Every structure is written in C-alpha cells, then in structure tokens.
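Materials and Methods. Structural model of Transposase. The 91-residue sequence of Transposase from Aliiruegeria lutimaris was retrieved and submitted for structure prediction as follows.
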Amino acid sequence: MASRPSPEFRAEAVRVALTSGLSRKQVAADFGVGFSTLSRWIQQERKNPEKPTAQSDLEREVAELRRENRQLREERDVLKKATVFFAERSK
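The predicted structure was written out as tokens:
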C-alpha cells in the first residue's frame, strides 16, 4: 500500500501545474502521480482558495515591497530634480 502524499507535496504539485506552463500530464509525470489525481487536487484547490498558504504570503510581501520600491524611486527622482533646480538657481 502506497503512502499518502503530504499536503506540502500536493500544494507544490498544484502550484507547478497552475504556474509553470507545462501540461498537466507532464507535471503529473514529473511528480510521479496520476493525471486524474493531479486534476482532482487542482479542483479541490480551486474550491477552497480561502486558506492562506506560504506562497500567497510571499506573493503579498513581494507586491508590497515592489510598491514601496516604486514609491522610493519616485521620491528619489523628485529629490534629484530639486537638487538640480536649486544648484542652478544658486549660480
């Protein structure tokens, strides 16, 4: 009797199937599970998307850091322009 895959294994297989661009048959073969098993895991994941995962936490953090980075770049650009303006004005 085969052992059941861990929830982490299932989540990773679903994540790869949904984001890698590979066919589901290829992902199932790569993970060593049946195509129908992988399809069932994907269906279950789509029915229960509300549970937070470590991956979604990372994605949320990356989005927040990108927003902050964009804001800091804009502020830096404004300060550069102000420096040039006041340097030319003091001449």
